[in-house]
Amino acid sequence: MIFVSAPGRIALFGEHMDWLKRAVIAAAIDMRTFLLAEENTTRKVVVKSYKPFTVYDEYPLEGFDPNRGGDLRYIRAVVKAMLNKGYNIKGAKLEFIKAKQASRITRRKELDLPVKKGLSSSAAISVACAAALYTLATGRYKIDTYDVLRELSDIAYIAERKILGINCGQMDQYTSAFGSILYIDCSKEPAKPIQLNPKIELNIVIGDTRQKKDTPRILEWLGKRYREREQLFMEGLEAIAEIVEEARRELSKEKPNIYKIGELMNQNQYYLKNYFRISGDCPISQNNLDKLIEAALDAGALGAKLTGSGGGGAMIALTTFEEREKIAKVIEAAGGKSYITKITKKGVAVNVIQCLRYPH
Q1: Is residue 210 one of the residues assigned to a domain?
Q2: Is 358 within a domain?
Q3: Residue 354 has pLDDT above 90, yes or no
Q4: β-strand pairing of 44-48 with 92-97
């Protein structure tokens, strides 16, 4: 049996730039999705999960509908993408587990990745599934090479974008697969990720608005504005693209200026709020993003901005190590739920574990 995990991500700079065929800077966070997997030869895929999500799905490898399966349709889409690429999948048993059970396997404190909060839980699920099926199909347990990670990223992207028809870019899947801080050139498919290795620690506090976001509607609305070349939107796009490049130059330094990074985050948020209009007064879904962002900045955060599609979901604040707890408490006081996290260099990972039977 193999144990697979994949991290969520935050967008440090450049929300929506990936599907706009520009570049983005994203970072993997130390909150993960966990999966147990083993091969079977029944020509069927069996998937188990836990409430409140779809808890069970089963289907043959031939003739299944990738759009069915509820929350587990992402696994169906990954299976379909891999079959289309010619991978020899004979069947599989997959089970998603919580961090508490995963911690007993890794012997370290694991953290669950919150779902539907703008932290790319769907991409983490897709990448973890792609890694599991890749290992089962090829017998290769070493997946941390550039070529393999790029292949897994592309499989997960194809599953979400091309098979399920989700209007996503390539940022989420690549960050979950590769880990660390990435500058991702999304002008072509597959994307080109470049790892950034600043020798400073970026202390991040995530603020969940506790409000749902309607990502499909927001993407549809932004896509319409882009197709119509709305002046406000296009000006924001170009400004954010320049901020991404300036942030790349700063993060490429051995010791970046953390205050400069915070200021660039604030500039990015200015254009997301006033030009893309996906922050607190988003006409698609008004929310408390601005309230949490302003509370964090007033309390001394170096930079703060939304992360994800906007219209709800989550924001991030860059702080000093000493100020993390303070910023987290301020976000809670403003009505959000806070998570103190750190950027992880560890992307998707596969390990063999000893287990006498498939767990239920």
Answers
A1: yes
A2: no
A3: no
A4: parallel
